[in-house]
């Protein structure tokens, strides 16, 4: 295992795994953001202007 | 719906905002003055006036002053101002606010004193000595307590996105700073990092890159999300986009550190990881930039008339440029050209001067009239500042692009058959970029002039007005209306359980030995199916849990912590555990003798790593120029590692034995006597100052504790060995015609160190096999990693 961590170039799977994990995170939060109700989004975005 | 119980009038603590703002301006000018001075030293070596005013010692002062003093104080000013307004509450504790301010300034003053004295840990942006490190950690805790306490007593149920960015900053900087500064002291002013070689490189750039991410970017993005809508008097373009921006950025950034170590001895899978995550950073960074720029929709006319908007929009544009360039430089092929060159310097300055500096200027011009109850003294002066600063940045960055690309191309140029260098003499490439280095001084000076104009404008504004603490009537909300989720609700729920369980199993798949990893993968698959079923059965609960993040700081903070810890764990833990001598295949560094170790400390003290690398990359031009490429095992005992990040001078990884002692002796006395056209400072004090014998024994003891295979030695034996080697070097110098050197002087120790660079042993494979335990490599406890070897010290 140790040798694999030090010497394995892993060119074949690291990029795909990196992309997969990131895309999953992006997808989850994009869906959550899209599902945020319009009035909630509007209310939240106006907080700084609420003086 | 929020039910209100009563209304109350609160007075914000704007005093601390004023203090941080003024401190930022003062330290900003000091830091940039140091920058212009060291830029001048690169062209005019005579400006290295004395040991404590030499380039190697002042460059860390410049970087630390700009990052932690200028941007740090600016960030705190913005955070304190906006957090109080977004929470509709005064900062929780005036005492903590005050301790934070004065403690931070004390840290800055300590840094300004210790760095020129050569007291350093020898790692970029992490140079400060261990007592100051502890002070930084303590003051950061004070800030964190004050910040979270304020969140807990807020009168606004929702957490605006700016607060999300601040939370990620508070959490992540604490993790990064503590891990990267783990050291064992050898005296009150010196310590050795517990990490060595590639471990140290990886942890250092995990920290270094994310200092850029979470100290220079996320808090400033929070400031952008609060102050830009205020300045243009309209809400942020898309709140939904800001949510995606935040989570994508926080999740991605932490993985990108290894792009600072491309083409080095770092394991290739880590290089790939760093490169791909850096490339993917393009998306959230540009999402944030566009969100900022489009906030100006329908108000672009303000860009012509309002200097605050001018600074903010230019800053956001520079953010976009820098975050385009960063991923570009992270592509291995591009990095082969750009790394160690001025291109990187240009990149960081477009970020620091354009993004951070202009955001600071916009913030201060917006804040000052409000904090002092008057109008800005002069809009014209602010406009002058903008244009002078902008021209300064463009000259600076343009010059560094040309310089970096030109020198990179020259250093990498080989003949048509690829067997020889076109420009074998390093000095030739340095001479060719001298003009560009001159333009850098001009660009930097212009930017500094802009800063001085701002200081003058703000000073005159302050004189017109008087300090004002804003008061505001707010509706006090009941405790039940905010932060309804406690520890139990935060952790004991399906989304959190599935996330942690899945992560653990995936990590097990990646890092367990063959057999166990397949089992972990199968378990992860089964776990995934179960999680999907749980989601199908109760997706409303899952949705509610997410919605609750928007109103509860504790689960939000936990999730942020998970996002940032994940990247660090995957990259660092395995590498830290495996970087032991028994795992290294072909070469193992020879430990330094006591004198060589003393010489290495002098190398670190003088900041030689600011201009010289010790890493020959896996690239033909590097190998042709400097020798065989550096192996992972060749810096395995280097605490701290000295791979460097810039080559103003040549690489030194295989310097040992390249020249006679007399060459180094003469070179340190007058570099130009041997290298015509060199811009390296002379080091006359090395010829008179004695090397440190007093704590040398302690240093050897700490190194042994860290796993360097020294034999047991008494204090007297350590000193005797050092002096004996010093006498030997002096004798050899005399043979080479250099009389008068003393064996206990720093020059002798430094020569000993330089002559050791690149010396390695070939491991005894039979011994290695005996020394490597079979099966699962746990428990993972530190120890002397290569007891099978006979130390070179004892030979």
Question: Can you give a write-up of this model?
Answer:
The complex is a heterodimer of chains A (51) and B (795). Chain A is mainly alpha-helical. Chain A contains three helices and no strands. The radius of gyration of chain A is 20 Å and the shape is elongated. Chain B is mainly alpha-helical and 795 residues long. Chain B has helices spanning 15-43, 55-87, 94-114, 130-152, 161-180, 197-214, 218-232, 239-253, 268-280, 282-294, 302-305, 307-329, 332-338, 342-372, 379-412, 426-432, 434-464, 487-491, 494-511, 516-537, 539-549, 553-578, 594-605, 620-626, 661-669, 671-674, 696-705, 715-735, 746-756, 765-771, and strands spanning 4-11, 183-187, 190-193, 471-477, 588-589, 760-761. Chain B has a two-stranded antiparallel sheet. In chain B, α1 packs antiparallel against α2 (55-87), α15 (379-412) runs antiparallel to α17 (434-464) and α25 (661-669) packs across α29 (746-756). The radius of gyration of chain B is 28 Å and the shape is globular. Mean pLDDT of chain B is 90; it is low at 769-795. At the A-B interface, α1, α2 and α3 of A face α2, α7, α8, α9 and α22 of B.
Query: What class would the helix/strand composition of chain B place it in?
Result: mainly alpha
Question: Uncertain segments of chain A of ≥5 residues (pLDDT<50)?
Answer: none
Cross-sheet strand order for the largest sheet of chain B: 1-4
Helix content of chain A: over 70%
Beta percentage of chain A is: under 5%
Q: What fraction, in percent, of the residue positions of chain B are helical?
A: 55-70%
Termini separation of chain A (Å)?
A: 59 Å
Structural class of chain A: mainly alpha
How would you spell out the order of helices and strands of chain A?
HHH
